[in-house]
Design a protein that fits this description.
Elements: E1 4-9, E2 15-21, E3 24-31, H1 44-66, E4 75-81, H2 85-102, E5 106-110, H3 111-116, E6 135-140, E7 145-152, E8 155-161, H4 167-177, H5 185-192, H6 215-231, H7 235-266, E9 270-274, H8 281-294, E10 297-299, H9 310-322
Parallel strand pairs: 1-4, 4-5, 6-9, 9-10
Antiparallel strand pairs: 1-2, 2-3, 6-7, 7-8
C-alpha cells in the first residue's frame, strides 16, 4: 500500500503544497508574493494575509496535479518553524483542520531539517544521486547559516553556525548598499558573472572553530562604499560588476573555509549544500572545484529545491511518518525551532 504525504510550507513569503508518494514527488506548487519588493524586504503582516488567500487554491492544485484523491492522503506534514509566526500560523491551522477533517495524522517538520532532506526527493524518470550517511551539509539561506552532520534521516548534529547574521542576509544587505532591489542576492550573482572577483578585497572574520559571522563584513562593505563614493560619486556604477564579484567571492570563501575544515576534521567526504544561497553560482562552482581537490562526493540541489518549497516538507514528513512520529492537534507554531 502506498504512503502519500501532503506537505504544507508557509514559513516566510511563499505558500507551497506538495504531494510525495512512497518518496516520489508527484506535485510541488508554489505561490510567490511579489508585494514585498516595494518594501525592500518581507513584511510579516502582508505575508500572513497572502498565505490566507493562497493556501486553499495551492493545496487544491497540488492534489489535482498529483492525480490523486484527497482521501488517498495518509498524513499532512507542515512547517512548524522556524519562520514568521503569522505565516506559520496560517499553514499550521490549515494543516490541523485538513488532518482533522480526514481523520489522518499530523506531522510537524523543522524547516531547516527539511532543506537538508531535499537530496532524498525522488522523481520518476529522473535519476539522482542520493547521499550516504553520514554526510556534511552546508545549509545557507537568508536567515540561517549552519554546518550540519547528517547521521540519518532524522538525526542531525549542528557542528557550526553563524553567531550573528546569515550569509543570505549579507548578500541582500550588501546588494541594498549598492542600490540593487530586493531580493539582492540573485542580482549580485548575476552581475558577478561579468566582474573580476579579485578587484576588491574585504576583511574576513576570525571566528573560532566552525562558527560563522557576517555582521562585520556587511559593515566593512558599507564603509568601503561610503569612502569611495565620497571620492568618486560614480564609483558604484563604474564598478558594479567588480563589486558584486568581489563581495560574492569573499562570502563564498568564508563559507568554504569552514566547510573544508569540517570535512578534514571529521574525515567525511560526502558533502552537500542546501538552502536558498545554494543556488548561488559562485558557491556551486567552489563546491565542485573543491570536490576535485579533496575527492569529495558532492550533492547540489536542483534550483527548484533551493528556495522554500513544500516538497522538502513532504519528504521529511514521509520519513517521520515511517517512524510513527506524529503531532497532536494542540500543537502550535514556533518562530524559533531548534532540532
Amino acid at each position: 500500500m502506498s504512503i502519500t504525504i501532503l506537505g504544507i510550507e508557509s514559513s516566510c513569503d511563499d505558500t507551497s503544497a506538495a504531494i510525495i508518494q512512497d518518496g516520489y514527488l508527484l506535485s510541488n506548487v508554489i505561490a510567490n508574493q511579489n508585494v514585498h519588493k516595494a518594501y525592500g524586504g518581507v513584511v510579516p503582516e502582508l505575508a500572513s494575509r497572502a498565505h490566507q488567500q493562497n493556501i486553499i487554491p495551492v493545496v487544491d492544485m497540488a492534489i489535482k496535479q498529483a492525480g490523486i484523491n484527497k482521501n488517498e492522503i495518509n498524513a499532512v506534514a507542515f512547517t512548524r518553524g522556524p519562520g514568521l509566526l503569522g505565516s506559520l500560523l496560517v499553514g499550521t491551522s490549515f494543516s490541523k483542520s485538513f488532518a482533522l477533517a480526514l481523520n489522518i495524522p499530523l506531522v510537524e517538520v523543522n524547516h531547516l531539517q527539511a532543506h537538508m532532506l531535499v537530496h532524498f526527493i525522488k522523481e520518476k524518470n529522473a535519476e539522482r544521486l542520493i547521499p550516504e550517511f553520514p554526510f556534511i551539509c552546508l545549509l545557507v539561506s537568508g536567515g540561517h547559516t549552519q554546518l550540519v552532520k547528517i547521521n540519518n534521516y532524522l538525526e542531525m548534529e549542528i557542528i557550526g553556525q553563524t553567531i550573528d547574521d546569515a550569509a543570505g542576509e549579507a548578500f541582500d544587505k550588501c546588494a541594498k548598499v549598492i542600490g540593487l532591489p530586493y531580493p539582492g542576492g540573485p542580482l549580485i550573482d548575476k552581475n558577478a558573472q561579468e566582474g573580476n572577483k579579485y578587484a576588491f578585497t574585504f576583511s574576513k572574520p576570525r571566528i573560532k572553530e566552525f562558527d560563522y559571522s557576517f555582521s562585520g563584513l556587511k559593515t566593512s562593505f558599507l564603509y568601503f562604499i561610503r569612502d569611495n563614493h565620497k571620492v568618486n560619486p560614480n564609483f558604484i556604477n563604474e564598478n558594479m560588476n567588480d563589486l558584486c564579484a568581489s563581495i560574492q567571492n569573499t562570502i563564498v570563501d568564508i563559507l568554504m573555509d569552514k566547510l573544508i575544515a569540517v570535512s578534514k576534521k571529521t574525515g567525511i567526504k560526502n558533502i552537500a549544500i542546501a538552502g536558498g544561497v545554494s543556488a548561488n553560482s559562485g558557491l556551486r562552482n567552489a563546491i565542485l572545484d573543491e570536490a576535485k581537490t579533496n575527492q569529495w562526493t558532492t550533492f547540489i540541489p536542483e534550483f527548484k529545491f533551493t528556495t522554500d518549497n513544500a516538497a522538502m516538507i513532504a519528504i521529511t514528513g514521509y520519513y517521520k511518518y515511517l517512524n510513527n512520529d506524529f503531532a497532536s492537534q494542540d500543537i502550535a507554531p514556533l518562530a524559533r525551532f531548534k532540532y
